[in-house]
Amino acid sequence: MATSIKDIVLSNKRLNEILDIANDWSLCHGISILDSGDAENDGKKAITAPFSLFPSVVPAQILRQAQKSMKHFNLLMHKVALDHSFLENSLKNVIQADDFMKHLWDIYLQVREVGIKQPFHFGLFRNDFMMNCLKPISAGDLVTADQLELKQIEFNAISSSFAGLTEQISQLHRLTLRMVGKKFESQQLPENKAATGFAEGLAKAWELYGNANAVILYIVSSNERNVIDQRWLEFQLYETHPHITVLRKTFLDINNLGVLDGNSVLTVNGMEVAVVYLRDGYTAENYSSEEEWNGRLKLELSTAIKCPSIQYQLMGSKKIQQELARPGAVERFISDASVVEDLRRTFADLYSLDLGPEGDEAVEKALASPEKFVLKPQREGGGHNLYSEDITKFFTLHRNSKQREGYILMQRIFPWQQKNYLVKRGVPFQLSDVVSELGIYGVYIGSTEQEIANYQCGHMMRTKITGTDEGGVVAGFAVLDTPFVID
């Protein structure tokens, strides 16, 4: 398996036998999501999460570059989140054009006015990259690392998903490769301990809070499909810290049941909360009424250590990503010139759409060649970006309106195409041309004065049919994958 699986020759009978085994193995090992169409069973029917039958190839140099950068990105983004003037200057126009971001900003200002109560900031991050081709390469062709460049797609600061499931995917791929007789070295399918690393971060934050009777609170949606992924982190916690209690509540629950005492200590059902882990709240649809927003505010005003805090969530917005690409922005936070260079090397071309000459120039670039760009709002979870003709339509309507300030314009990445079989509803099970995103997981805990924890702890890949614009797994665009490392 030098660079692709195109040389794997299997009969349809054998291929379907491997598919059946892979599906059963996935269900046995918790590579699962809840079926959205299972109304009769209250949505509790587990089905296999979408996955690739085999791993996708990543040059070792590319993987090492992404992994090495994670600790530096962790620290950079922590410093950004604690720099009020940088946040304010970066987001001042966005919050006038985007009601969701305005709500987040208003909560941030209220927390800032009374004083931040939590002793440390805590992030469970995932930094997503693509392998951009420096010249056109056909799917499955032999490539070397110097024909590719690692480009950052986005930095996920809230609800960084699939740390739980991705640990199991690498084991599944060891099985499928062996079933087709492919020999490989153990380091070519590297050990992946993303869920373990995240669970260690949760436990460390809980310890730092300093109350052995306090609980960890998961904030989840009322119709959560990705519960198995979330549970993996919880189960890892129970393995190493069985004395820690984990609660699962919604924002509405916090609004109705959460109590803040005179010292800003949060209790839910009489239990003090040490750590709040948000797996909800990253898009406007997560707040259907002011009661959900009130629940979020109650969390933010408390002494509980939030993952993420409100300023961490703001830091993860696309606008901040674009502002950091400006000359001198990274240098504001990182003094080591070699680290700055390493980080900047991964940046795509990013453009502000603020009203004025700079934004006007970006609009003209997009209208002249819409196929070269992606138009991104301040949202997570997949399904929100605009491409090609939709970019033209958007700027035709909003060329000179403030609504454009809620977006950024980004260089479109043209990633290396490979071959794989995708196991996903609605996608034909056949050898297909695919492209992948590489995600690196990281944990950060710190304050303005000290760094408590900073490490990268695993990886994931999301793979989709070539020509599919969006990349979310639960949103239905991509499948879970793992890297097969080549020199």
From TrEMBL:
<keyword id="KW-0067">ATP-binding</keyword>
<keyword id="KW-0317">Glutathione biosynthesis</keyword>
<dbReference type="GO" id="GO:0005829">
    <property type="term" value="C:cytosol"/>
</dbReference>
<feature type="binding site">
    <location>
        <position position="156"/>
    </location>
    <ligand>
        <name>Mg(2+)</name>
    </ligand>
</feature>
<dbReference type="InterPro" id="IPR037013">
    <property type="entry name" value="GSH-S_sub-bd_sf"/>
</dbReference>
<protein>
    <recommendedName>
        <fullName>Glutathione synthetase</fullName>
        <ecNumber>6.3.2.3</ecNumber>
    </recommendedName>
</protein>
<dbReference type="GO" id="GO:0004363">
    <property type="term" value="F:glutathione synthase activity"/>
</dbReference>
<dbReference type="InterPro" id="IPR004887">
    <property type="entry name" value="GSH_synth_subst-bd"/>
</dbReference>
<feature type="domain" description="Glutathione synthase substrate-binding">
    <location>
        <begin position="214"/>
        <end position="315"/>
    </location>
</feature>
<keyword id="KW-0460">Magnesium</keyword>
<dbReference type="InterPro" id="IPR014709">
    <property type="entry name" value="Glutathione_synthase_C_euk"/>
</dbReference>
<feature type="binding site">
    <location>
        <begin position="376"/>
        <end position="385"/>
    </location>
    <ligand>
        <name>ATP</name>
    </ligand>
</feature>
<feature type="binding site">
    <location>
        <position position="318"/>
    </location>
    <ligand>
        <name>ATP</name>
    </ligand>
</feature>
<feature type="binding site">
    <location>
        <position position="470"/>
    </location>
    <ligand>
        <name>ATP</name>
    </ligand>
</feature>
<feature type="binding site">
    <location>
        <position position="462"/>
    </location>
    <ligand>
        <name>substrate</name>
    </ligand>
</feature>
<feature type="binding site">
    <location>
        <position position="230"/>
    </location>
    <ligand>
        <name>substrate</name>
    </ligand>
</feature>
<dbReference type="Pfam" id="PF03917">
    <property type="entry name" value="GSH_synth_ATP"/>
</dbReference>
<feature type="binding site">
    <location>
        <position position="437"/>
    </location>
    <ligand>
        <name>ATP</name>
    </ligand>
</feature>
<feature type="binding site">
    <location>
        <position position="126"/>
    </location>
    <ligand>
        <name>substrate</name>
    </ligand>
</feature>
<keyword id="KW-0436">Ligase</keyword>
<comment type="pathway">
    <text>Sulfur metabolism; glutathione biosynthesis; glutathione from L-cysteine and L-glutamate: step 2/2.</text>
</comment>
<dbReference type="GO" id="GO:0000287">
    <property type="term" value="F:magnesium ion binding"/>
</dbReference>
<feature type="binding site">
    <location>
        <position position="154"/>
    </location>
    <ligand>
        <name>Mg(2+)</name>
    </ligand>
</feature>
<feature type="binding site">
    <location>
        <position position="464"/>
    </location>
    <ligand>
        <name>ATP</name>
    </ligand>
</feature>
<comment type="subunit">
    <text>Homodimer.</text>
</comment>
<dbReference type="InterPro" id="IPR014042">
    <property type="entry name" value="Glutathione_synthase_a-hlx"/>
</dbReference>
<comment type="similarity">
    <text>Belongs to the eukaryotic GSH synthase family.</text>
</comment>
<dbReference type="InterPro" id="IPR005615">
    <property type="entry name" value="Glutathione_synthase"/>
</dbReference>
<keyword id="KW-0479">Metal-binding</keyword>
<dbReference type="GO" id="GO:0005524">
    <property type="term" value="F:ATP binding"/>
</dbReference>
<feature type="binding site">
    <location>
        <position position="387"/>
    </location>
    <ligand>
        <name>ATP</name>
    </ligand>
</feature>
<dbReference type="Pfam" id="PF03199">
    <property type="entry name" value="GSH_synthase"/>
</dbReference>
<dbReference type="InterPro" id="IPR014049">
    <property type="entry name" value="Glutathione_synthase_N_euk"/>
</dbReference>
<keyword id="KW-0547">Nucleotide-binding</keyword>
<feature type="binding site">
    <location>
        <position position="154"/>
    </location>
    <ligand>
        <name>ATP</name>
    </ligand>
</feature>
<dbReference type="InterPro" id="IPR016185">
    <property type="entry name" value="PreATP-grasp_dom_sf"/>
</dbReference>
<dbReference type="GO" id="GO:0043295">
    <property type="term" value="F:glutathione binding"/>
</dbReference>
<feature type="binding site">
    <location>
        <position position="380"/>
    </location>
    <ligand>
        <name>Mg(2+)</name>
    </ligand>
</feature>
<feature type="binding site">
    <location>
        <begin position="410"/>
        <end position="413"/>
    </location>
    <ligand>
        <name>ATP</name>
    </ligand>
</feature>
